[in-house]
Design a protein that fits this description.
Blueprint lengths: L2 H9 L4 E8 L2 H4 L10 E5 L5 H11 L12 E7 L4 E8 L2 E8 L9
Length: 110
Amino acid sequence: MNAKEEFLSSISTRPVKCAEVVYTACSLWAMNEEDGPPPKKLILKVGYNETAWEEFLKELDFEYDAGYGGQELFGTIWFSASDEWMVRREYDGSEWWELYCKPRITDEFY
């Protein structure tokens, strides 16, 4: 799976406020920290410009194993025009970005 393509597909047309994506290959889990490279942590800061966006996407353009096994991608994406955010989830080896929305306050609370 390509992390950049999945990220762009998941956000759809939602404007991103900021994001954090951390990549740790499952094969690294078996190693201690001294044997392998550290996890790859990508940060897109609030107030980013076009250059920072392009650099973030460039760094996110890699293949990872989205199949069964341990989770390899972690992170959170916050959206600017809404009370929505996405969190990286995993179940039984399958990974995805899951959308969360701030619950609407219904009329009974007013």
